Here is the input.
Amino acid sequence: MLDLFRQKIDSFEHMRTETTERQRIPRIQAKILNAILNSAQLPDPEVHSLLASENLRRADVRDPHGTLPFAAYLRLFDRVAERLGRDCFGLELSSGMGPELVGPAGYIFVASPDLIQAVRALASSVFTIQDATLFEVRSDPAPHVRYRITDDDMSPRRHDVEFSLGYVNHLIRLLLGPGYAPAEVWFEHPGPARPERQEALLGCPVFFDQDRNAIWFRPEDVHRRAPGADPNLVALMQHYIQLLDRPDHTIQTFTEEVRQTLAGLADGQEPSLVRVAAQLGVGASTLGRRLRAEGSSFRDLVRRNRIDRATRLLLETKLSVLEIAERSGYGETASFTRAFRSVTGETPRAYRARLLDARLGKLS
Here is the structure.
């Protein structure tokens, strides 16, 4: 078994040492897409055609040490589900995947002493699996874990989000036993009027069009002792992950670093200059000066962050313009519309109508 773990760490070492050119964009382990394609059981010519649409080959996906552009993975996940005609494909798939899918991070999860330590370990090691995403463990207003794709330009994301939360929920069942069930699961994207299938798969009430993607835990489960806890295995896998170092290859400029920090702020946190500077370990004046040197400003980045979030919500949810304005940090629709038009050149309603027309045109 130790040899298997060493092979897995070699995979991560290779991921870390890829060429600079390939490291400029967020990436994901190739084996995750390979598992999805294997489960889909599409004919080989169809698989080759799908991969070719993203300039990928079957060998790229089968490479156990390889990574792929995260945006291409999202698009391919969506296309595979569409070809299969399975609206719950990502969620259905998640329950059949074991800890080996994500390597050391998965083994740490199922060998942890309790639920809260398992999800905290995953939150700190998600960088070994993919970029541009966060798992956040929160206790307010109740204990939950949240999954976030931090780049609002990346879409479609529905199947990945459902797969990711479904997979974590499956790992928790492996950790605590088949009697475990979450209190609720929330998704940002819209869903069916009657989510019986989703609720059957997750074992709890499921709600769509929410302000976060989250698994909400029952208080009694948070610190319940895991029957299969293995501290020796956890220590071994943590040692391997510590050898990797957190990669910073997705950050090319200080402007991009500020943009990623803004995207990672928790809901309800005001994107203030002082708060962001503190998170980056610099003074507020230094932050402003470095942004100006790159031809940017904190005010512009905050506005862009809010509008990026709004554009995604306009396309991927059925929320009203007023609700989207509030979720994007605007107190009323008029100020939101002015800011949106200044960035995109369109009103929110016109933007949504144009993109929906374009999407329908592609499907017809």
Q: What stands out?
A: The longest strand covers residues 133-138. The beta strands are 27-29, 67-69, 133-138, 144-149, 184-186, 206-207, 213-216. The mean pLDDT is 85.
